[in-house]
Amino acid sequence: MKGLELSRLCYEQSGRPALEAQFPELFPRMAAGLAGEGSECFGFDDAFSRDHDWGPGFCLWLNRPDYLAFGPRVQELYDALSSEWETRRETPEGRGRVGVLCIQDWYARCTGRPEGPRTLDDWRRVPEAFLAVAVNGAVFSDPLGCFTAIRRHLMEDFPEDLRLKRLANRAAVMAQAGQYNYPRCVRRGESVAAGLALAEFARAAMSMGYLLNRRYAPFYKWMHRGLLDLPKLPRLYEQMKALYQTGKPAEEVIEGVCLNAAAELRRQGLSDSRDSFLLAHSKELLARIQDPELRKTHIMED
């Protein structure tokens, strides 16, 4: 059973009935679900995931006033319930991922602000992997809607100017590291430099895949796995896999990835260039940015 399914089962079968019975007035103000750090929150957990920070449990999110007033008592009930479940294997670094949590503190930890980023500068400061953590998993119940409102804001309000800026950056890195420097390093016999160039290209290409799908790229070890769930650029998962397998030459794979990315940029109306070299598309993306200060930033600045 996947961790997210196990979490929902724990909540529906024992958590919800007990919470509703013992906290009838507070229950309509509680949000419950599983989201945040951990492979199970992304649905990527497998047999190897179960050796640490995995097992039955769920999150109960309360607004700050309710958290301060009722948090310890609700946590006591949660602890009593969890003692009846299979033991959750927790490391010191993984503690506090489930149980009773303050909504504002939880989002501040993910995004730097209790209500999530609001200004363009706020958004620029938050790494994409942190935003991915803030919107993954599932909300099982949120009668008041406070937790879900911030979650929806993070999912729907990412500034288009910033998406364009990051797409421009990814296109430039893909062109520089993959289309230009990688083959030159190979021909020079610089195997370490070639490996680094390939890694730079792969990270930028996968990030572009998420940006073109209006999704947040997760932590690097899950970036490739997450491509399977993206409807746009559906071949990117297999292309990235081929990049690191013997058989098809890497240069051929790189060009295929860049051609598909360029086609999707045109499909979304983000570039008119027919050039196969992605630097040309990068310049077109920059030109579409409305904010004058952001438009002037260096192409290699994220």
Strand order of the largest sheet: 3-2-1-4
Query: What percent of the residues sit in helical stretches (DSSP H or I)?
Result: 55-70%
Which runs of at least 5 residues are low in confidence (pLDDT < 50)? none
Portion of residues in beta strands equals 5-15%
Question: Using only CA atoms, what is the Rg?
Answer: 22 Å
What CATH architecture of the largest domain do you see?
2-Layer Sandwich
Arithmetic mean pLDDT: 93
| General shape | elongated
Total number of β-strand segments? 4
- Helical/strand content category: mainly alpha
Short description:
By secondary structure, this protein is mostly helical. It is 58% helix and 5% strand.
